[in-house]
Amino acid sequence: MHNARPSHLYKYKNFSVDSLDLLVSDKLYFADPSTFNDPLDCKPSVINNIDDIAGLEDIFYRLFVAAHKKELNDAAKKIKYNGPKTLERISKLGDMEATKLIGRIAENHDFFGDSIEKSLLIYIEKYLLQGYDNGVLSLAENFDCPLMWSHYADQHRGFCFGYDIAKTSTGKIQPINYYRQRTITTQQILDMLDGKENAKKEIDDAVLLSKAKPWKYEKEWRYIHTQGLHDSNLNLTDVTFGLRFKESAKYAVMQALSQRPYPVKFYEMKTIHGEFTLERTEVHEQDFVRYPDCNQYYVNSLEDVRNDYNDNDDDPFNEPEPFNPKDTY
After folding, report:
1. Which of 120, 153, 184, 292 has the fewest CB atoms within 10 Å, i.e. the most exposed one?
2. Closest CA to 163 of 232, 209, 229
3. How is the beta sheet containing 159-164 ordered, strand by strand?
């Protein structure tokens, strides 16, 4: 487990239009856990400890109806069509579809000899996860992890955002547990559906806050919120550029954030000679004096100098006439 909660956490990002927009507009993006690169992440295994097929059917039925209603409600909101008749129809459709699916599971058992328990557990896992509308913002304790820079910041072509989380509610940002099993029981799910808060927290922790041990080098914390783009309530304190981040892009980022009411510090990563470790040093806007660059400006400047020497024999731009022997006679 992690030690005490740090005062700052970091987000590694590729450099793109979208990541630049997050910085300039001061937004946070909470990703759908199903899009994570680890297929085991946010996907617990359900173990049955209820010796009752009817009880499993009840769990499945309630999960399916909840997930189905959520999906249809979201669709209705998008088309702004959510009157009482629509909501009633959505409720009836969920009940009908759940009943039909349970019937098909029973038919498969009778015809193919499939295990009803096994089939129900597969569907319970599926619809348990579909019922989640939580989004996740993954953050790291450290800004100098070589693996994180390679995996999440486009092999050092990206950057790393630093956030002050001291004033953020503790419950919203929690550490990953790399030692917890990714299993939950059907009894826990039933307790959650019956409104027991302890069971809901246990399942939430297993779904959203558990990860395999090999990932522990990330020292990850997760900010849980509804999925999508939201205004940031974290204070951006610093931006660190990767080893391969383009110089002109550094200047552009610094310019873009120069008018923020709360100043942001800028750093760039450096290698330590003879070691496989990284360090960062602070950089300032004046370190990039050649920007903004404009080649045409220098062309025009040379033309101005040339014009100044038009009537001057010492014009450095006027080449001497080629030697002609006839000129000596």
Report:
1. 292
2. 232
3. 173-175, 220-226, 134-140, 8-13, 159-164, 235-241, 265-271, 278-283
Locus of tokens 């008018």 = 259
Query: What CA–CA distance (Å, rounded) separates 22 from 29?
Result: 8
Confidence at 219, pLDDT banded by 50, 70, 90: very high
Distance set, CA 291 to CA 86, 110, 151, 251 (Å) = 58, 74, 30, 7
What pLDDT, on a 0 to 100 scale, did the predictor assign at position 27?
96
- Name the more confident of 52 and 296: 52
Query: Vertex 51, ends 47 and 52: CA angle to 5°?
Result: 110
CA separation for the pair 50, 116 (Å, rounded): 13
pLDDT tens per residue, range 3-32: 688 999 999 999 999 999 999 999 999 998
- pLDDT tens sequence across 86-118: 555 655 665 666 666 666 665 655 444 457 888
CA–CA distance, 90 with 13 (Å, rounded to integer): 40
Tokens of 162: 């630093």
SS3 302: helix
CA distance 166 to 6: 8
What was the pLDDT predicted at 111? 40
Contact 268, 158 (CB under 8 A): no
From residue 149, how far is each of 18, 24, 142, 242, 257 by CA, in Å?
18, 22, 11, 7, 22
Q: How many other CB atoms sit within 10 Å of the CB of residue 134?
A: 16
Task: Tell whether the torsion through CA atoms of 198, 200, 203 and 209 is positive or negative.
Answer: negative
Q: What gap in Å lies between CA 86 and CA 80, rounded to an integer? A: 11
Question: Which residues on neighbouring strands pair with residue 35, listed in sequence order?
Answer: none
Q: Using alpha carbons, select from 16, 302, 327, 300 the residue that is nearest to residue 159.
A: 16
pLDDT in tens, 113-157: 457 888 889 889 888 888 787 889 999 999 999 999 999 999 999
Q: What is the mean pLDDT of the chain?
A: 82
Max Cα-Cα span within the chain: 122
